[in-house]
Amino acid sequence: MIPFNIKQLETFLWVATLGSFRKAAERLNTTQPAISSRIAGLEEALGVKLFERHSSAVRLTAKGHQLLPAAKRVLRMADKLQMAAHPDAGTGGVLRLGVSETIVQTWLPDFLREFQVDFPLIETDLLVDATTNLRNELISQRIDLAVLMGPVLEFRIENVGMPPVPLVWVCAPQLKLANTSKLTLCQLTQFPIISYGRTTRPYSEIYRKLSSEFDEPPRVFPANSLAASIKMTLDGIGIASLPRELVGDHVAEGKLVIVDCDWHPSDLLFTASYPTEPTNPVAEHAAGLALRTAKAYAARNDNAVVKSPADGFARLLRDYAGR
């Protein structure tokens, strides 16, 4: 019997998953000839043909389909063996992590610190992008884990729900709002509305609501950058819908006030999503760590002293009454 190795089995699994020697080479950070060599060596060792080669793609043979589940089991056992041998240090490698900007601006630093403690030998390759792009990267398996506005409804993707992120209406104190304790949506939209980017769920919800309520939809300024949204809001350009956790410091410092309105967008719902095939224990562990980190961050912010919508709006009215 000709011996084979774990690297050959891993290559077999990635070629089967991605349907391409080239994509498998990119994923495994090697060359296409090296992938071909590993597959040829595995086929020789097993004495069977695993793939049908075509000009644009490769497909599993009937025997390849039959052997794939056994290869997955062997790789899972190899992962468990490595984790058992190095429970503290883990194994080397790279975690390709994709996150939405909301996560970057909130609990991502806490997560990265904890992840480094759990897996000191694993590097983190970070991609910050919109949910639409992160979803595509995840499904194509160019990233291992994505924290995005989910869930990702694909049968090979596991979704771990994060705590909801409440959105609030905020504005700069200098905006001259109606003299009332709670604004109607009509009163709110006398000012430009600053929202998430056009391809996001919050923008779609705001746009649909305003389009259904008004014959002529009010001005909406979508921004792909949360930093840009906050800057425009601080400068008094309009009223923004932003995560409560993100504006807490600005509200506490009096640079922004939370505006009470009879309608506001739904909470942001994020998931930590990762492919289940091929198995990736590090990504699975990181998803659980993301949940724990997000819960801890939310608990700290719930306990922080942040002005309520009523308190902020009352202060705003008092300021203008004294002018």
Plain-language structure description:
- The protein has 323 residues and is α/β, with parallel strands linked by helices.
- It is 48% helix and 17% strand.
- The protein contains 13 helices and twelve strands.
- Strands 4-3-5-12-6 form a five-stranded mixed sheet, with helices on both faces.
- α9 (201-213) links the parallel β8 (193-195) and β9 (220-222).
- The N and C termini lie far apart (90 Å).
Low-pLDDT sequence parts: 305-323
**Beginning-to-end CA distance, first to last residue:** 90 Å
* Average residue-wise pLDDT: 86
Give a count of the beta strands, DSSP E runs of length 2 or more: 12
Class of secondary structure makeup? alpha/beta
Estimated helix fraction: 40-55%
Strand content: 15-25%
Radius of gyration, in Å, reads: 25 Å
How is the largest sheet built, in terms of strand order?
A: 4-3-5-12-6
The DSSP helix count reads 13
Shape: elongated
Element-level helix/strand string: HHHEEHEHHEHEEEHEHEHEHEEHH
How would you characterize the largest beta sheet?
5 strands, mixed
Write the layout of secondary structure elements.
Layout: H1 6-18, H2 21-27, H3 32-46, E1 51-53, E2 58-60, H4 62-85, E3 93-99, H5 101-104, H6 108-118, E4 122-128, H7 131-139, E5 145-149, E6 157-161, E7 167-171, H8 185-188, E8 193-195, H9 201-213, E9 220-222, H10 226-234, E10 239-243, H11 244-252, E11 257-259, E12 270-275, H12 281-303, H13 309-321
Parallel strand pairs: 3-4, 3-5, 8-9, 8-10
Antiparallel strand pairs: 1-2, 5-12, 6-12, 7-10, 7-11
